[in-house]
Amino acid sequence: MPTLAALLKEEIGKIVRKEVQDQMRDLNKTVRAQRDALARLEKQLGSAKAKPAAKPAAKPAAKPAAKTSKASTGDKRKQLRISPDTIKKHRKRLKLSQADLGKLLNVSTNTVLRWEAGTSKPRSKHLPGLGQLRSISKRDLKKQLGE
């Protein structure tokens, strides 16, 4: 036969669980509402960022041809796809160490290591140099390194 203490403990446990569930339900509703509001704000921010970016893109088309050629070189840099595997593949093809590649591009050895591991991406100022790795010969590379 259950004791009075055991019955009280069981009833108190039921009441506590019900109260916690009620509070969690309210909290979940609040969190859901805040996430929805955040999503709306991010969407507004994204559309606000897209609007100014679209205006300057339209202006260079109306300017002289000399300035549009600069825009086309910027497009080529954006089209250049460099993955960690391609960096490593071309470095090994040219028989370069990570330190030598770092010297060529004016970056540290750790930076090259992170590029090849995929933990970071090269900045836009390093992309042309990495793009040259595809077409440079070993002889030209030795000249650049001063060997």
Can you characterise this structure?
The chain is mainly alpha-helical. The protein folds into two domains: 1-61; 77-145, 434 Repressor (Amino-terminal Domain). The protein is 78% helix and 0% strand. The termini are far apart.
The helix tally amounts to 7
Largest beta-sheet characterization: none
Give the helix proportion (percent range).
Answer: over 70%
SS-based class: mainly alpha
- The number of strands is 0
Low-confidence stretches: 56-75
Radius of gyration: 30 Å
What is the succession of H and E elements?
HHHHHHH
**What is the CATH topology classification name of the largest domain?**
434 Repressor (Amino-terminal Domain)
Could you say what the CATH architecture of the largest domain is? Answer: Orthogonal Bundle
- The pLDDT mean sits at 80
Q: How much of the sequence is in beta strands?
A: under 5%
Q: What is the overall silhouette?
A: elongated
**First CA to last CA: what distance?**
93 Å
Name the CATH homologous superfamily of the largest domain: lambda repressor-like DNA-binding domains
Q: What is the highest CATH level, the class of the largest domain?
A: Mainly Alpha
Tally the structural domains: 2
